């Protein structure tokens, strides 16, 4: 089937919608699907209004892209996707509760702890080098610690 058989520009928009939909399936990012919907809407509109100028097509695509993205954002806000690891991309949240070792003594002016393979500034409980402490918060890149207990 050629573009002329589908309707020229309408076919091009519908093919663009298909390509964007396939791209979303191959490289999921939950964004291309909204552009695919916008392209499909413009393609269907061109089947009804075949004389729609190119500038109007692009304006309609831009407007529908904005509308579909806003609807999608609202949808994902109202119906969040469940995850087995909701803190996957929140390094600060993943550190809360971790037990770490004091690298430089923690005093009134702070100190340093070893987190993973790095050294982080720390504040909180007074602790000597080698003491195990638990991270209770991260504020402005500083680990707030308390005694680790047991």
From TrEMBL:
Its main location: membrane. It is found in: Membrane. It is a multi-pass membrane protein. Residues 93-147 form the NfeD-like C-terminal domain. The keyword Transmembrane applies. The chain crosses the membrane at residues 6-23, 30-49, 55-72. This is NfeD family protein. InterPro entries: Membrane_assoc_protease, NA-bd_OB-fold, NfeD-like_C. Keywords: Membrane, Transmembrane, Transmembrane helix. It holds the Pfam family NfeD.
């Amino acid at each position: 089937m050629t573009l002329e058989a589908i309707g020229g520009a309408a076919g091009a928009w519908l093919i663009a919608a298909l390509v964007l939909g396939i791209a979303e399936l191959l490289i999921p990012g939950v964004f291309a699907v909204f552009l695919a919907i916008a392209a499909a809407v413009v393609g269907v509109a061109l089947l009804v209004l075949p004389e729609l100028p190119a500038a109007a097509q692009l304006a309609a695509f831009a407007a529908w892209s904005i509308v579909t993205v806003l609807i999608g954002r609202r949808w994902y806000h109202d119906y969040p996707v469940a995850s087995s690891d909701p803190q996957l991309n929140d390094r600060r949240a993943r550190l809360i509760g971790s037990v770490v070792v004091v690298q430089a003594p923690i005093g009134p002016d702070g100190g340093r702890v070893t987190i993973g393979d790095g050294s982080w500034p720390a504040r909180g409980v007074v602790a000597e080098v080698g003491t195990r402490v638990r991270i209770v918060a991260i504020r402005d890149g500083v680990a707030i610690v308390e005694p680790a207990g047991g």
